């Protein structure tokens, strides 16, 4: 009788006759890490979007035949690899935030990557538990586990595998129907199809495979037709000239003084407004900034109004707002809209605040823990009040829906801001991403925003303090873009229609999540009534 491979024994395999256990511990670890890296590569370089479509295949090989407890470990390793490549820029953020040395910043970052990676571990554990009871349902159970566990896991924001697909326009169009989670499901389902094709498994899933292939064909057919339909449609739209000011200011926790030759009343950004107005801009936007003094000082508001009246251009600017409500002084992260006469026509207060940066979650207010968190984040932690409603800035027929930084990471929240009444709307995001240095983070941020624009079928503007700032059409085509990590002024010719805008997803953003959660609940219920496959 042959001796057992101790590595295989340690992995508790085999579990099923249909899943031969031929791999030892080391190959499985390497395959899990390779899967995480392939799934994460598009976050590092969006031109590598194609790796996500089969990136889960090595992970599926690693999981073949193991018990759920081993799947938890292997999935967590894949998750660490995925998040470390997708968010390596956390190291630079910590260095800029607290002036940590690189080794300390890397060590602290690894804590986050391990925590985040555990989400994929939980997904794989649930998958293996389901697979032992429902071995012919992997085409559905794998993407369901991966997508839904990630959606409920307590990360700072939703992590969607499909968001770095912003350059794959034919695949991207379908998110206007069901949102980015639908594309997540499709990418992960494709990985299962490839895995089954390579291994010859899934003989009991022929019907499922045919349905999956038909779904892929329908998705890409719709994508091809829709992409060209929107190109043709926009050919008859008006062109609106929007100016973007990208100052590339250095990050600082202190309130910065105006540069030499400028003042609070006349900052460098206002000089850019005058130049852009002369070039033909009808609206100019400034990015998220540390402090301008607009809300605090009458002299600043008066000067801005005079300059705008002289130039005849509208302005949307970001600033810290302090307001009295009753006897309490509240702080807000806000955007103000000034019309061509310099009159303030609207203010948007950020609704989704950044944990640890703009507010402290309840748990971290506990004695001892709150002190530790405040000590670590220091002045970066500025407690703010959330805004209470979405706003619309009506700018010469454009119905601009303003959002600030972190808010772009929430698809349903953005869809609700577009809603049923979407005609003529434009999504506007402003952010300050210099905290992350010259990394891929701002490119990732702008890609998220491109996906939000396609989900809701509206033009999209994302102005990033350090770039790359982008203007995108409702089908995701980039209309204009600045270089990253350099000052820039951009005059974009943005197609716009007062009667177009909105999508099935913007009207029903909760439809697919309800279907997905219901499907997973039914699979779990069915699995509880089935004995493991032996």
TrEMBL record:
<keyword id="KW-1003">Cell membrane</keyword>
<comment type="pathway">
    <text>Protein modification; lipoprotein biosynthesis (N-acyl transfer).</text>
</comment>
<feature type="transmembrane region" description="Helical">
    <location>
        <begin position="103"/>
        <end position="127"/>
    </location>
</feature>
<keyword id="KW-0808">Transferase</keyword>
<keyword id="KW-0012">Acyltransferase</keyword>
<dbReference type="InterPro" id="IPR003010">
    <property type="entry name" value="C-N_Hydrolase"/>
</dbReference>
<keyword id="KW-1133">Transmembrane helix</keyword>
<feature type="transmembrane region" description="Helical">
    <location>
        <begin position="139"/>
        <end position="162"/>
    </location>
</feature>
<feature type="transmembrane region" description="Helical">
    <location>
        <begin position="47"/>
        <end position="64"/>
    </location>
</feature>
<dbReference type="InterPro" id="IPR045378">
    <property type="entry name" value="LNT_N"/>
</dbReference>
<dbReference type="InterPro" id="IPR036526">
    <property type="entry name" value="C-N_Hydrolase_sf"/>
</dbReference>
<keyword id="KW-0812">Transmembrane</keyword>
<dbReference type="Pfam" id="PF00795">
    <property type="entry name" value="CN_hydrolase"/>
</dbReference>
<dbReference type="GO" id="GO:0042158">
    <property type="term" value="P:lipoprotein biosynthetic process"/>
</dbReference>
<dbReference type="GO" id="GO:0005886">
    <property type="term" value="C:plasma membrane"/>
</dbReference>
<feature type="transmembrane region" description="Helical">
    <location>
        <begin position="71"/>
        <end position="91"/>
    </location>
</feature>
<feature type="domain" description="CN hydrolase">
    <location>
        <begin position="251"/>
        <end position="497"/>
    </location>
</feature>
<feature type="transmembrane region" description="Helical">
    <location>
        <begin position="210"/>
        <end position="230"/>
    </location>
</feature>
<feature type="transmembrane region" description="Helical">
    <location>
        <begin position="21"/>
        <end position="41"/>
    </location>
</feature>
<comment type="similarity">
    <text>Belongs to the CN hydrolase family. Apolipoprotein N-acyltransferase subfamily.</text>
</comment>
<keyword id="KW-0472">Membrane</keyword>
<protein>
    <recommendedName>
        <fullName>Apolipoprotein N-acyltransferase</fullName>
        <ecNumber>2.3.1.269</ecNumber>
    </recommendedName>
</protein>
<dbReference type="Pfam" id="PF20154">
    <property type="entry name" value="LNT_N"/>
</dbReference>
<comment type="function">
    <text>Catalyzes the phospholipid dependent N-acylation of the N-terminal cysteine of apolipoprotein, the last step in lipoprotein maturation.</text>
</comment>
<dbReference type="InterPro" id="IPR004563">
    <property type="entry name" value="Apolipo_AcylTrfase"/>
</dbReference>
<feature type="transmembrane region" description="Helical">
    <location>
        <begin position="511"/>
        <end position="529"/>
    </location>
</feature>
<feature type="transmembrane region" description="Helical">
    <location>
        <begin position="174"/>
        <end position="198"/>
    </location>
</feature>
<dbReference type="GO" id="GO:0016410">
    <property type="term" value="F:N-acyltransferase activity"/>
</dbReference>
């Amino acid at each position: 009788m042959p001796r057992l491979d101790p590595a295989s024994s340690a992995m508790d395999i085999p579990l099923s006759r249909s899943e031969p256990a031929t791999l030892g511990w080391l190959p499985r670890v390497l395959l899990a890490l390779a899967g995480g890296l392939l799934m994460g590569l598009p976050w590092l370089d969006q031109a590598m979007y194609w790796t996500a479509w089969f990136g889960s295949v090595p992970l599926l090989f690693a999981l073949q035949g193991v018990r759920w407890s081993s799947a938890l470990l292997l999935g967590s390793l894949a998750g660490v690899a995925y998040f470390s490549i997708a968010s390596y820029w956390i190291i630079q953020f910590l260095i800029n935030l607290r002036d940590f040395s690189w080794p300390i910043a890397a060590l602290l970052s690894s804590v986050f990557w391990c925590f985040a990676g555990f989400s994929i571990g939980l997904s794989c554990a649930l998958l293996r538990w389901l697979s032992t009871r429902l071995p012919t349902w992997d085409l559905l159970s794998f993407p369901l586990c991966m997508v839904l566990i990630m959606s409920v896991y307590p990360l700072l924001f939703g992590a969607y595998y499909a968001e770095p697909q912003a350059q794959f326009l034919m695949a991207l169009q379908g998110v206007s129907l069901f949102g980015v989670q639908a594309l997540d499901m499709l990418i992960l389902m494709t990985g299962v199809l490839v895995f089954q094709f390579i291994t010859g498994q899934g003989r009991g899933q022929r019907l499922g495979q045919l349905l999956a292939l038909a779904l892929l064909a329908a998705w890409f057919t719709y994508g091809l037709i829709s992409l060209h339909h929107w190109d043709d449609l926009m050919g008859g739209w008006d062109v609106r000239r929007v100016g973007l000011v990208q100052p590339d200011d250095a990050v600082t926790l202190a309130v910065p003084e105006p540069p030499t030759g400028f003042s609070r009343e006349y900052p460098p950004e206002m000089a850019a407004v005058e130049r852009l107005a002369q070039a033909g801009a009808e609206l100019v936007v400034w990015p998220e900034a540390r402090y301008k003094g607009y809300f605090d000082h009458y002299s600043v508001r008066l000067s801005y109004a005079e300059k705008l009246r002289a130039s005849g251009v509208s302005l949307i600017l970001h600033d810290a707002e302090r307001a009295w409500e009753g006897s309490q002084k509240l702080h807000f992260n806000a955007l103000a809209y000034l019309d061509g006469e310099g009159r303030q026509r609207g203010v948007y207060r950020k609704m989704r605040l950044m944990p640890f940066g703009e507010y402290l979650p309840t748990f971290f207010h506990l004695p001892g823990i709150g002190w530790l968190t405040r000590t670590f984040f220091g002045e970066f932690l500025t407690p703010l009040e959330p805004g209470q409603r979405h706003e619309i800035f009506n700018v010469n027929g454009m119905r601009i829906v303003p959002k600030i930084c972190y808010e772009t990471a929430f698809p349903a929240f953005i869809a609700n801001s577009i809603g049923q009444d979407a005609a003529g709307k434009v999504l506007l995001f402003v952010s300050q991403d210099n905290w992350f240095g010259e990394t891929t983070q701002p490119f990732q941020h702008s890609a998220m925003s491109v996906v939000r624009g396609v989900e809701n079928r509206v033009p999209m503007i994302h102005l990033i303090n350090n770039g790359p700032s982008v203007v995108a059409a409702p089908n995701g085509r980039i209309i204009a873009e600045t270089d990253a990590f350099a000052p820039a002024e951009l005059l974009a010719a943005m197609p716009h229609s007062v009667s177009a805008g909105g999508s099935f997803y913007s009207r029903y953003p909760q439809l697919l999540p309800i279907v997905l959660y219901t499907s997973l609940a039914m699979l779990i219920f069915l699995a509880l009534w089935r004995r493991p496959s032996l």
